[in-house]
Amino acid sequence: MKCRQQFQLLLGLSFTWTLAISDLEFNVQFVEQVLRNVNDSVDPCEDFHSYACGNWSDNYKDTQNYLDMPGYMDYKYNTQLLRVLQMQHQQGDIYDLLWSYYVSCRDLKDPALNEFLHLLEPQLQLEWPIFKSNHSDVWRNETQFDWLATLAKLRSYGLNGVFIKQDVNVRRENGSHYVIMLMPQSANETPLIEQNILDLYVAFGVDELLAKNLTAQLMQFEWQLGNLTRHMELQPMNNLVEWTLPELQQRLPQIDWSHYLLNLLEQPPDALQLLQVSSLNESYLQQLQLIVKQSSNETICYYLMFKLLYALTEELPVGSDKETRSIPCLLQLRGHMPLAMHFLYETHYYGSRRERTDAALQHLQQKLSREFERLLQQNYLQLNAEEQVYVLDELRSLRLKIGNLPPRLSVQQVLEYYKDLQLQDNDFYGNKLQLLKFYQRREQQLLANKPTWDYYQQDAFVARSSSPVKIFQNAVLLPHGYLQLPLYDARLSELLQHAQLGFILAHELQHAFDLFHIVYDARGNFNMTGLAVLQHFANFTSCYTSVHNAQQLLLSESMADIVGLRLAFASYFDHAESVERPHDRYTQQQLFFINSVQFLCANMQQIRADSITEDAEHGVHNERVNRNWPHHEHFAKTFNCTVGQAMYQPHRCRLW
Length: 656
Hints:
Elements: H1 2-11, H2 23-36, H3 48-53, H4 56-59, H5 69-88, H6 93-106, H7 114-124, H8 147-154, E1 164-170, E2 178-184, H9 194-203, H10 208-234, E3 241-243, H11 245-251, H12 257-265, E4 275-277, H13 282-293, H14 297-313, H15 322-336, H16 338-350, H17 354-378, H18 385-397, E5 399-402, H19 411-417, H20 428-445, H21 460-463, E6 469-471, E7 475-478, H22 494-510, H23 528-535, H24 538-547, H25 552-573, H26 588-596, H27 604-609, H28 621-628, H29 635-638
Helix pairs in contact: 5-15, 6-15, 8-12, 9-10, 10-13, 10-14, 15-16, 17-18, 17-22, 17-25, 18-23, 22-25, 22-26
């Protein structure tokens, strides 16, 4: 039995012991697993990531499914959910709904984007010009094509940022109040690729000579829009303004906004509905209208169609057979129906350990918060009394939300939430369009500004991830996926909890006070006091950018790393009630730092081979660790690093 346990540990595939063991033995085995990832042949003072994670890829070998520890945690979480679906789908209720979509995705033969177009024609009340029986004929909608209504309706199916970008946002002065936000098309919008468009025309059966002419017209239209959006980017940014619908129509009369909103919301817009407008001005809309008027309705429709197809390409299942599609289709479910998937995991996995795990996590969060409060009292930034109260107010109101579910959620409530869905196991395209529209409608319901249950709606891309995140509602959201081994267990010692998940939580806690969020107070409202606090960050940003070439996104993440590591370390070592049993090869401080980077372990060789070279927010795993960990005041001393070594930082940057 012991051999089986060690085999499971070695592969990093399971931490479920078949025999009851003491907490002490549990921690011993956990540390042994962590240390298997260490490569002792690397000097920690030259490349700490390669030292702490150098053997990780020998223990986690399934590079087809994951390349790093976050990827492994997602893969493990996905396989658990898939197992539940496979075993429980005949129970009916929500399981039946989830299974119908999963099967329609898994069993889809020969994915084809044109199927989406056919299904959308009745919704849009038009015939796509690509489906003309004779492509030389005049398009039947040429004289009666309502591009504005079509654009608004396609927003429900994932098309956004073409001509106009529309989102639901919160007010700057009232973070609990939702409004419609309008912006111009971005200059960074994914461009159409000429050869790709030509190939698509031909694939749809268009004669090659005609396809070239149509492609040329489309690329000319794209070029004109590109010039407009690039010109707009060079202009000074307008402040964010809020108008009612009549005010919007008066100030920007180039667009019939009532008509646009009627088709967007599928109901007459409220004249008192507030609309946020950012960088959308008369000049842009006048030039947009000019470009549209100079183009045929057929060209405009083709442009919207191909932009839609570009967006929907990401919605097709990947994989060539049922086996290779199983996890990708499960991921689609996580993105489109996150509430139901969280409910499944809570019911079948997390619920049985929630009481003990939640208590341990809340205790950990409280210790981190108290440590941050202690730092604030030292007042390294020399904040005045009002600024200190501002930061403390946000800190004390920050909460930890464990699992993105309302408390005591029942299956009846889940079914009520999804009552409008009619998913079929043989209709992938219809299911997909239903779910895309479902998300859009749920988002628009926020505009009613009525009290909702404790559930945070995320877009599909974010909902597919297990990573913790600081959300705008002044909370750290900790999804289920990270709350299992090899990252976390409530039986782990205080040291091990602080080193890994403690650091992750402290990193997210710091995001409440980073370069982007510090200007929003505890209630999510823009606050000038926060802007004043931001000015105190100048010394840190100057220090960090003088050592590292960091853009603002990377700077905020690095700030969270440096502060988070300090909070996690100090909240344990400065307050440890008892000394844990020392390891025979490593000090407690060394174990802390080694364990703190385990969630950033990765198969760097494969990542480099796949040319995965950039993460705009965090940076590549090894670069991130080797750049930020040396800024901790105890790191160099812990590993005896000296001047001249890569991990010795002579100019450590401190924020709080």
